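From the shared-data thread, chain only:
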Amino acid sequence: MPATEPSKDLRPNPRNLPSSPSTSSNQNSDSGGGVQLRRSVRRKDRIQTESSGEERNDMASATGIPEQNPARSQQEEEPLLGGPGDAQQPEGKPLYMNLFGGTAIIAQAGIWILTGIVWGSVLSHPLILFSAHPLLNSAGILLTVQAILTLQPTTTAAQKHRGTYLHSALNNVALLLLAAGLVLIEYNKGWNGQHFYSVHGILGIVVYSLFAVQAFVGATQFFLPGMYGGVGKAKALYKYHRVSGYVVSTALLATVCAATTTGFNKASLHMTLWSVVLASAVTVVGVGARVRRSKLGL
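Structure, as tokens:
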């Protein structure tokens, strides 16, 4: 028998067939349509994003609530001198570390030098009843600066709570020392001398009064907020308490500077004006450089 050839599949292979013009045009049309669809979707998303941004701005304008700006928030937390962390208490660190963080070391140098000038001048002479006046007052000012440095860097609610207790305790002791210094000088002058006639005397009685009011308002704001209409309203006054605290503290230092112009200092203590002014200025720089705008409501 003759050999039979294997049967061949005569059906056309679709892969080998050339694409028809209509098929090619349909594919190109589908491809072009897909590109246009994607472009349309992207354009729609961009329009929605822009419109939502405009809505947020309109809402901020209507409600009076400013839009959050991380860069601005960071600037508000920065101290007037140094980096953001220089005036912030690290989490988990004790309160006493606030006495030396950032420019606090400058403030410490200034206030301790000032205290040393006063105590050195007084203790280098025989002690009399008047001697207690500058000793008590300078000690009170020293504690006032410590009270400020303790509370300045607190950030979290727990830190502020603990810091306020220590701040209040130091200021209350300082108030007692200042009051004792006032009573002694008035008792001493009650027998011989005029009252409140010099710049030092006039400035002193004004600062004593302001310090007492400052301490009273600060204590009642925290411990008795009901006096101000509730916790929220009391907290709204904190920024004014801070500003007035810096003003009163600076006035205390100015009173010490004025003490160098009194007749008793010129005749007996011999404290030099330049040294007292310099020590006071260093203290102000060290304390003021750690001020954060956010705590002043700026």
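The CA atoms of residues 123 and 131 lie 8 Å apart.
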